[in-house]
Amino acid sequence: MPSISAWSSTSVRRLLVVLLAVLLAQSAGGPEALSASTAQAAPGPAATPDRPRYDVTLRGDADGSRWTGRQRVSFRNASDRPLREVFVRLWGNGTDGCGTPGTPSPVKVSEVTGGTAGRLSVNCTALRIALPKPLARGERAAVAFKVSLTVPERNSRFGREGAFRFLGNALPVLAVHDAKGWHLDPYVSTGESFYALASDFRVTLDHPAALKIPATGRTWTRPGLPGRSVTHSVAHWVRDFAWAAGPFRTATETTPGGVRVRSYWAPDTSAAGVRLTRQDGAAAVDRFGAEFGRYPYGEIDLVMTSGFGGGMEYPGLVLLGTTDEGSAVVHEVAHQWWYGIVGNDEYGAPWLDESFAQYANARFYGWDTVGCWSEVEWPSDRTALTDSMAYWAAHPGEYHLIYTAGPCALADLERTLGAGTMARLMKQYARDHWYGVSTTAAFKKAAQSVTNKDLGPFWKQHRIR
Length: 465
Known about the structure:
465 residues; zinc; Zincin-like; alpha+beta; 3 domains; globular; metal-binding; Immunoglobulin-like; seven-stranded mixed beta sheet; M1 family metallopeptidase; Neutral Protease, domain 2; five-stranded mixed beta sheet; 10 helices; M1_LTA4H; metallopeptidase activity
């Protein structure tokens, strides 16, 4: 663990709360129209299949532990090469893999139409579907399948706590093919493996009326059959879809910036923590909207329980372990921009979302970051801030560097460029990659474009390779 003596006592406490929250969580990932410039933000061959549209209808059991129904996804081939196959990622199987005879995988897909399903691979987190004919550039196709989700018996992003169910990374989503080929990386419990393109979701959840359902997107609930309700959600240009279920207490407010903040919490959650989380969450969404670009989704859900292991971000929804001191809500709200709006390959370049979210977190709380880089201790000359999850998963004791060295590096960049220039850089960088996918090379190029200083030595010193 790096020394953080240069930071104020308040900064240290908040840093430890956020760092512990994030690491614990990870050990258990009318909207604006997409502009033409954003669609091609990443250099090289276009990522495909793009512009996915998910239509999902699921029915939950008595306590929200099992959901069954059907999912359809249509997509376009953005590549110059014919698209002959797609891969669907079943990230919910990441911890359990292919399961055992007594404990099957929690996510099951069956009765595939629109293509021919192969065998599950990558520890049962990837399903290849061969298309009936090659899909030319610009053409659309669709696949559909039955899906069954059984919430695992663990307190995690896809798991449960008492009467509450969390369904993060539960829905199957399309894998991405880009200049590196198909991204079929393994699931990691430290950090995230996720990489998805901005998509549209229309999700209908039929559930017992006693359950409240916070979810990604703009949601509304109507009566269903006797004793049941139906929650509808529509989300545009998001990279994933998550929801929770349980007998939550609720409150709704609208920020001065016009964002609706819906809060959901378990009855045993600290009342002081709920108040602080609601206060900071509402302030953060407006603050980051001013700094990085207006929050485009209109609504965000804050889901709080006392025992959840930290915090986990999804588009328009965050899961938060909440104590008397609050939660990691500011860090998780920052992820709405850094991973959500400005996308990245979270397996290949985790610093682009985690370090950026923690830098925003530090700015929000006014942490003293002067000199914090000099206190960072690196385990090896070979270790880089820009290492992939392949490295961090093999060295989990070093992963904290993403949350400590990363924001320190960005704070040093702010001092190097000047606060005003850094602010303009971050806002323009977000605008240039809005709903797109960025890379380390793209950020370095953007930073160099705003200064006459040669940033080569800076990148070398801060291990940004």
